[in-house]
Backbone:
């Protein structure tokens, strides 16, 4: 299970915003990771994480691709997706998320202790049963990530300190 502070940071991320398409960078050190999540542990297929892929480049580029067991209803904001990235699992450096129904944005924040930094523009997209979240920001440069997590939340409770969680990956250590 995710730490309470990580869940709260993910919930706060979903409350803010601005959307922008950002290009990927070149020649940077890259960290990649992925995991599968058990099928059937979410309440319905569109709210059940089955696969997550992650990529971070030291130029500040971040990408999360979250696959669910079934179609996602983006028009009705079937679920809010939240992500976190940290040097360790207990100390996240970045939080991000989006609901993807218009006009809800995808945003990312730096995390310093218990404080979120200013919101940073991101891009989010739903295609069938895949959420894609990405950004490239100078504030995210030159990290050495060691852990990430993904959670699907009820959009109606995403802004609260204790949001309703549909499914989560738990904390995933990034192998060096």
Residues:
């Amino acid at each position: 299970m995710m730490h309470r502070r990580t869940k709260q940071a993910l919930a706060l991320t979903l409350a803010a915003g601005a959307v922008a398409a950002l290009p990927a960078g070149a020649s940077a050190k890259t960290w990649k990771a992925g995991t599968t999540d058990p099928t059937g542990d979410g309440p319905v297929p569109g709210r059940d994480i089955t696969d997550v892929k992650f990529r971070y480049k030291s130029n500040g580029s971040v990408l999360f691709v979250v696959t669910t067991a079934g179609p996602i209803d983006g028009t009705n904001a079937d679920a809010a997706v939240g992500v976190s990235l940290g040097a360790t699992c207990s100390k996240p450096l970045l939080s991000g998320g989006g609901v993807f129904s218009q006009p809800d944005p995808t945003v990312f924040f730096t995390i310093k202790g218990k404080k979120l930094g200013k919101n940073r523009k991101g891009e989010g997209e739903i295609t069938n049963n895949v959420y894609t979240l990405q950004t490239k920001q100078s504030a995210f440069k030159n990290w050495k990530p060691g852990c990430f997590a993904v959670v699907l939340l009820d959009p109606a409770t995403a802004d609260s300190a204790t949001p309703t969680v549909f499914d989560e990956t738990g904390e995933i250590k990034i192998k060096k």
Notes: Residues 8-25 have pLDDT under 50 and may be disordered.
